[in-house]
Design brief:
Elements (H helix, E strand, L loop, with lengths): L6 E5 L1 H7 L7 E4 L2 E6 L1 E3 L4 E9 L5 E9 L3 E6 L59
Antiparallel strand pairs: 1-3, 1-7, 2-3, 4-5, 5-6
Length: 137
Amino acid sequence: MNDSNGYAVFFFPQALEILGTAIRPYLQDGPAGVHVLCHEIDTGGALIEMTIEGRSAEGKVVSLELMVPTSMVRMVVSLHSDGTTFGFSPRDGQPVTALPTVGPTAMPAQAEPQAVPAAASVPGAPDEKLTRTPPKP
């Protein structure tokens, strides 16, 4: 998996057993396990289409399309990289601006929610008004 562009497609062990010798020429072993290294993939149907680029015995570039049922695929890892960054970080070097606090310690919204339906008047029922209380810190 040392290529910087493409996809590594990992299969379930049962899928490798079922596919048997038909898939073996396309498998590569790496630190993360056995996988198929693809230039492009299409996961838009019942079959996952993997485009593999290689060279023929004469040295010509060949493109091979390998299709297997999507249920056989365990995981697809994107190997696309620009070579300068890794992981989830700002790519332009600018600091990330702080986002407002959200969660149980945040102050509630100031406006009344508009999704609450109006109470129906029922004869003989006490008058009730819906209120919002801020969460306890």
